[in-house]
Amino acid sequence: MNNSKEDSAVLMSIHPQYVKAIQSGDKKIEFRKRSFSKDISNILVYETAPIKAVVGYFIIKEINIDTPQKIWNKYSNVGEITKEDYFSYYNDVDIAVGICISKYISFSKPVDIKKYKLQPPQSYVYLSNDLFKKMVNVGSSK
């Protein structure tokens, strides 16, 4: 993907059980109801309560958009979600977005987003490339 100064990454809220599955490599796709309107190559992972911090990021391999049934048929074996929970999540929409994970990078220490005047996003929020790099540097430092 093409990175511009402003459109490099998003901060995405993800529940702890799914973060653990991404970190272990078992979950290779993140499911969402809507796609990005900008070219995004990295996703900072904000782990929701009880951690409430950015714990790492992943590089996007590809993004697939299709019906919930077709995305389920293709990715159910690497999604780490039950069929019941998946279809409950997509109950009110006709489009499913599958964000395939190329590589996950864990931070050595969690990053508090309040330092950057950010609120935990409902789903995700766009970040400038500069802010993405700052948060990666802070999370990666010993």
Protein structure class: alpha+beta
Shape: globular
What is the end-to-end distance? 30 Å
How many helices? The count is: 4
CATH architectural arrangement: Roll
Strand order in the sheet with the most strands: 2-5-4-3-1-6
Instruction: Count the beta strands.
Output: 6
CATH names the topology as Archaeosine Trna-guanine Transglycosylase, Chain: A, domain 4
Chain-averaged pLDDT:
94
Number of domains: 1
| Overall CATH class | Mainly Beta
Q: What is the CATH superfamily classification? A: Hypothetical protein
Kindly state the percentage of residues in helix. Answer: 25-40%
Main sheet summary:
6 strands, mixed
Characterization of this structure:
The structure is a single chain. This protein has 142 residues and is an alpha+beta fold. The protein has a single domain (9-116), classed as Roll (Archaeosine Trna-guanine Transglycosylase, Chain: A, domain 4), CATH 2.30.130.30. The protein contains four helices and six strands. It has a six-stranded mixed beta sheet with strand order 2-5-4-3-1-6, sandwiched between helices. Strand 3 and strand 4 form a beta hairpin. It starts with 8 loop residues before the first strand and ends with a helix. The model is unreliable at 1-5 (pLDDT under 50).
